[in-house]
Amino acid sequence: MKIASVLSREDGTLHVAAEDGRSGIFDVRPYMESPAFLPLKDWAEFSQVRNGSYYIEWRCGADLSADTIEARWQESAASDALQAPCS
């Protein structure tokens, strides 16, 4: 999967859109107990997610591959794609 966009949400999840038109919600909260992801508990850090197309990363060095995201996201139904992904 190639990531087209990623938006952080204040609940600790990400809205991820793939270049093939699929999208979904990925929950980062389970990862936030590992040392590399601890800084993401701070919204100022979590909100600074960067899209690397085949991965996402944060300034603190935490990253996730597109494969990991695709394997564990909650893919949105086609009708959900018509709604705004997050606010």
Describe this protein's structure.
The radius of gyration is 12 Å and the shape is globular. It has one domain (3-77): NE0471 N-terminal domain-like. Strand 5 and strand 6 (63-65) form a beta hairpin. It is built from two helices and seven strands, in the order E-E-E-H-E-E-E-H-E. It has helices spanning 43-46, 66-72, and strands spanning 3-8, 13-18, 23-27, 50-51, 55-57, 63-65, 74-75.
List the helices and strands and how they pair.
Layout: E1 3-8, E2 13-18, E3 23-27, H1 43-46, E4 50-51, E5 55-57, E6 63-65, H2 66-72, E7 74-75
Give a quick precis of the structure:
With 87 residues, the protein is of the alpha+beta class. The protein has one domain: NE0471 N-terminal domain-like, CATH 3.30.2020. The protein contains 2 helices and 7 strands, in the order E-E-E-H-E-E-E-H-E.
- In helices, the fraction of residues equals 10-25%
Give the SSE order as H and E letters: EEEHEEEHE
Query: What fraction strand?
Result: 25-35%
Distance between the termini: 24 Å
- The oligomeric status of these chains comes to single chain
CATH T-level fold name: NE0471 N-terminal domain-like
Largest sheet: 4 strands, antiparallel
CATH class: Alpha Beta
The DSSP helix count reads: 2
Q: Given the helix and strand composition, which structural class is it?
A: alpha+beta
CATH architecture grouping: 2-Layer Sandwich
Radius of gyration: 12 Å
Low-confidence stretches: 79-87
Give the overall shape.
globular
Count every beta strand, where a strand is a DSSP E run of 2 or more residues: 7
Q: For the residues shown, what is the average pLDDT?
A: 91
* Widest sheet, order of strands: 1-2-3-7
The domain count comes to 1
